[in-house]
Amino acid sequence: MSKQVQVALLLTGNELMSGDTVDSNSSRIALALGAHKIGVGKKITVGDDPTLLSDSLMDLCASADVVIINGGLGPTEDDLTAELVAEVAGQALANHPSAIEHLKAWCERRGLELNASNLKQALLPEGADLVANPIGSAVGFALEVNGALVITTPGVPVELTAMLPEICDRVASRVGGGTVFIRRLQTFGIGESTIQELVNARTDDWPNGVTLGFRSGLPQLELKLQVDDASLLDNRDEAENLLHELIGDHIIGYDDEQLAMSLQRALLDRQMSVTAAESCTGGLIASLITREAGSSQVFGSGFVTYSNTAKSSVLSVPEASLAQYGAVSEPVVLAMLAGALEKSGADIGIAVSGIAGPGGGSDDKPVGTVWMAWGTTAHHRAIRLQVPGSRERFQILVAAIGLDIMRRQVLELPPIPHYIQRFIHRAS
Amino acid sequence: MSKQVQVALLLTGNELMSGDTVDSNSSRIALALGAHKIGVGKKITVGDDPTLLSDSLMDLCASADVVIINGGLGPTEDDLTAELVAEVAGQALANHPSAIEHLKAWCERRGLELNASNLKQALLPEGADLVANPIGSAVGFALEVNGALVITTPGVPVELTAMLPEICDRVASRVGGGTVFIRRLQTFGIGESTIQELVNARTDDWPNGVTLGFRSGLPQLELKLQVDDASLLDNRDEAENLLHELIGDHIIGYDDEQLAMSLQRALLDRQMSVTAAESCTGGLIASLITREAGSSQVFGSGFVTYSNTAKSSVLSVPEASLAQYGAVSEPVVLAMLAGALEKSGADIGIAVSGIAGPGGGSDDKPVGTVWMAWGTTAHHRAIRLQVPGSRERFQILVAAIGLDIMRRQVLELPPIPHYIQRFIHRAS
What we know:
five-stranded mixed sheet, 3 domains, Maf protein, six-stranded mixed sheet, Alpha-Beta Plaits, alpha/beta, Molybdenum Cofactor Biosythetic Enzyme, Chain A, homodimer
């Protein structure tokens, strides 16, 4: 008889019920299985309560081909998973020789004595088949329970991640499966609905069998192009080409690539270097650039000039400009840019000065106002933007726009992207 | 008959099953209810599948006094929650006049026409009682279903958060409840097990009725002191005093306070200002300081000197020191500190130079090596640390240690905290 769902998850732990911990393990499991065309149909989450645990496990064994239990494999009294599975399966608990071997080796590598509380982790239901944990002391196991394959996994994310390849194989040999082919693209400065409209207007050109998905973040939006069969890989390339035609200047890279890495690659290709003169972003742009390995090849120095005094003394912004136009003004960001380019010797730079809030705004220059100057000594320009939202959101977006605007200049893309229109200040 | 659990959650949406979205809404709901002494006992998560949804809702109505449904209230075809509840309750769907009023007002505020897809959001089960959504277009509702109180809530986190006070009141009037009194303390540089051991050694002094909880993050560890009755508030203060006695120099503040904010308060109290000269942290320290509102009162400028050239030209580090000792050395961080203090005019500063990796290490100075100098022109010192882990973790920990070390100097706390021992480099 076919079950209601292929795979169900039973997530355990009081910390998941109190709200103190956000469950990200079930997302890890679902993404790994999804890459094998296997769907998770149902999840039940309960605390360390024996009755709720066994009711939930019985329920899931009845409705799913495979039940993956996450959590409760540790050495403490709260760790109930082995007992739970034994009880529901009607098996006794017994010492599992391979699990003892694993614990001995694990302790030995750390110079620890194998103690009683660790040994508890080798007490598994009779007939359980070990699932190797290459990292931690807790082994997982697999067992037939009431017509379902039950697989137990540890709650520690790195251990779970290390075990997922074996788990996916075990699940696939039970329920079938396959391979999906996913290409992820990172974009900036364009929304999901705009992309969907542009694609819808070209339905005739969209290749068969390619699914377009979105995963939004701040500041980037991820696109997923998915095909279910290797014979469709050319179609996926075609879909990617169409996206490049429609929104190419918004595509910054593959997989998890961030704006700063995309900028770094563009600079490396042209053997250019970059600097930043930051007031309202307070070092965030420099920090994003240097977060990426290899940044020393394109970045030598940056300047955080938060006060007016610093703008003058560090970047030689004329005091007269500060007095006449204020720190958040076109002459000041242009002077900051010129000063940073000169002091750093970099080829291209960005300068930002704005009002991140929550205080400091005026009728003339409300919170969210920012002047941004960017470019080289020879080719530069400045723009005034209005970026709404919290202080945190303001800083994240201004830094991202700054990185993107330099990326566009280096790559010779349209300098003022579409999205900037949303933020351009219009004098009333 | 009493139910198995007080409150159960039904979380809906395909994005929760595919792994693309990590569910944080159930944590928001549980934390809000927890503050009213109401526990969430069980959660079921399913995709937008009518059969799974109705089976799950029936199951939860049978086992819980209150069932809160999250998601599926929007205007699209995938949004099935109103139909689901109507079906399980055996009620027809009907236009709800107050919901239409809400939608009209919502559209009017945005200058939008009320269209058919929005109007779908006013089609609710007969007898449903509106739960106000102060932010979004989707109203929630409450309805008796098979002996349980079912409350529906939107998936958009800010809308859910805005509705939680009313929801908590409704749940409390159904299942009872109360108030728990939680004080949260942020700590840095000490682990959960060390704190627990220190507290265990003083069991006799630990006041009755106070629960100590932990919530770990990077780089901070949160402590929660909880009592269940207002009469125990003095005991909570006593427990806090004991913690101050045991680990006071590690306690940086209440609620969500970050190290940078704690440093800002300490500096403000003494009318002092701060600067940073950063190589391996690349602007992260300045960025953390300026992330906090009010930072302009204590921070004027910071310097990101990533290259050797920048260390010399911007901070006047002698080229001879760089050549003789290398960029990651005591003479160089001391010179960086002196340069930053002079250029910025700040009272206290931090200078860091290290090897964040993954490349750039040597036998002599492996990846993770960092030299840190901090203090005033008159009182400063330097230390060599070895900070293991990824590039990201290295930068986060080095920046946090830098902020904490300055906080300690400003507050006249022990200058080299206990935790630094873990990281101190020992010549072999």
